[in-house]
Protein: FtsX-like permease family protein
Amino acid sequence: MTANKFFLNTIFKSLKNGSSRVFVIAISILLGSAVCSAFVNVYLDIDQKVSRELKTYGANMIFAPANMSENDYISQSDFEALSLKIPSKNLLGSSGYIFTQANIGPTNAILMGVKFSDLKVVKPFLDLRDGALINLDFDDKNVLIGVDLAKQTGFKVGDTIEIRAIGANKGEKVKIKGIVASGDKEDALLIVSLNLAQKIAGKQDLINYAEAVVLGSFDEINNYAKQISTAEISAKPVAKISKTEGLILDKIKLLMAIISLVILLITSMCVNTTLSAILLSRSREIALLRAIGASKKNIVNLFGFETFSVAFLSALIGAILGYVLAQFIGYAVFKSAIDFRILSIFIAMILSLIFAAIAAFYPIKRALKNNMAEILRGE
Structure:
């Protein structure tokens, strides 16, 4: 009991008298644990967050006629029925497209019929240059015009034009609501509602193809495509987008793991350097303890317990603060919260304690090799 009391009293006085250096160790471990905990939380949540973020690059699944050589169209209602088979939480948006040539005023143009409500989801790079976008799918009175077509025809926002099928005497009057640009084919098209384009083309309930934005890995999207494809409609993932997403995710995860490792190594170096200084300043104390009968094991237990108590408390506080740091990262990068995982607390603490133990091992071992007689000479 007396030995235990002496042991605890020595630890208490050591932590109290060396508070400034102990504080450096505590802060180093706390920061390392916080960063590790934050990155573990983000790492475990990153698949969903980055996957959703990358979906802003456009559609990653396409629906087209199963036999292109025999048929240029698919049924819009059949496509919509197939898209319902994709879990609603994974389907961010979809649209069918139909293209037809028509007269607009004194010139000809190609019309693109789309689902306006999901236009910015499937065509995220469509930039509004003037006017406003259209949000209602059944708006047959307003259209968008590509920037190149607008320059060619001289039409501007607010103009009313008549759209007529080739060879028809009567058409539909519409108003140009916005001028858009994408750097692609849309720049030369007149974008109208799907219903209006089908009416002018005389192709009710028909579309040329469709696109969808689906959450999930390439394999998951590929499985969805195989399950919903029919004899008339072929669903396929856009491999370039879906596979690139997986590569980006892997690289981000690797980067986060490397950063966490570097932070922990820096933490370990701080602990090692500071603990070496502490043990150097306490070399006479260690020699005196040895002189009055303390074994090397007692010394290891004494300084090991001091280091462990500081490291454990710092790692625990750091792991909890790491969740707060994860929220800052989540809102700064993904504009949404990061889910809390209790696993992050254990991983951060275990890694922090392992690196702290490695950092403490050599200073303690070196301190025990000192010549006690020389240190105590003159005392």
About this structure: The radius of gyration is 34 Å. The chain has two domains: 2-53+246-376, 60-237. The mean pLDDT is 81.
